[in-house]
Amino acid sequence: MPHDYDDNDNNNDDDDDNGRTTRREAVGFCCSAVFEGCRQGVVEVFFLLSFQNHKPSCRIVDFYAPALDTFAIDNNNNYYHNHYNITNTSIFFDLKLENTMPFNGLLYGNLNLTFSYGGPPGKKIGSLGLPGFYQGMRKTTHRRDVANTSGVPWVDAFASVSKNGSSAAVVVFRVDLETEVRSKCYFWYRKKQRVVVGGDVRVGNTGVQVGDVA
User: Fold this and answer.
1) pTM for the whole thing?
2) Consecutive H or E run containing 7
3) Which of 3, 100, 143, 189 is a good FRET partner for 91, with 20 to 30 A between their CA atoms?
4) CATH 2.60.40 is the classification of domain 57-208
5) Digitized pLDDT (tens) for each residue of the chain, 214 residues in all
6) Residues facing residue 134 across a β-bridge
7) Alpha carbon of 34 to those of 27, 31, 65: distances in Å?
8) Which residues have CB under 8 Å from 131's CB, separation 6+?
9) What DSSP string runs through 26-89?
């Protein structure tokens, strides 16, 4: 006997298809909304981070005073400092400047360095100016240079680090840095920030820095 098709069956099938379509559209809309919300959140986070304003990290990572190197030997196999014949009174140094900001560059003004001898406040023995520069985001820059000194009691200092040949004997220098920086935010620079930092440098009988800068 032939089956009689009822219009209600077709209507029910159409309703099921429409229901599935509606659910898919709802799920798709929810996913789109979640994705858009996450995208906007990420954009806002990056935008806020771009307005961070941190000063750079500045430190002396290498320091060498040839006049205190008790192991320097001349061509005649005599100690360089026999009879305290000190001829090189310069200081060689490596200044490390680090921009830790992930989204901002830094524009440095002139770097003004002051060198002192002895414990605080110490005696000023020299100064040096280095030109400013631009530093990109998350970049590290080294400024290696030589500073001339005057007024250092090299004879006494050499005697101090030479005591009994002990590597523990040290003398203290100090390095102070003063500069101004401006962070770059998109297409403009922010207001200048003054940077003043300093630390003690201990030097042993090899003439080089001992340990980290205090």
Assistant:
1) 0.72
2) helix 7-49
3) 100
4) yes
5) 555 555 555 555 555 555 555 655 554 555 554 445 445 544 444 444 444 667 899 999 999 999 999 887 444 445 444 555 578 899 999 999 999 988 889 999 999 999 999 977 789 999 999 999 999 999 999 999 999 999 999 999 999 998 755 667 899 999 999 999 999 887 788 889 999 999 999 999 999 999 877 5
6) 107
7) 11, 5, 62
8) 110, 111
9) HHHHHHHHHHHHHHHHHHHHHHHHTT---PPEEEEEEEEEEEEETT-B-TTSSBTTGGG-----
Q: Give residues with Cβ within 8 angstroms of 9, minimum separation 6.
A: none
Of 167, 189, 187, nearest to 108 by C-alpha is: 189
Neighbouring C-alpha atoms within 13 Å toward the C-beta of 53 = 15
Instruction: Say which residue the tokens 């799920």 belong to.
Output: 27
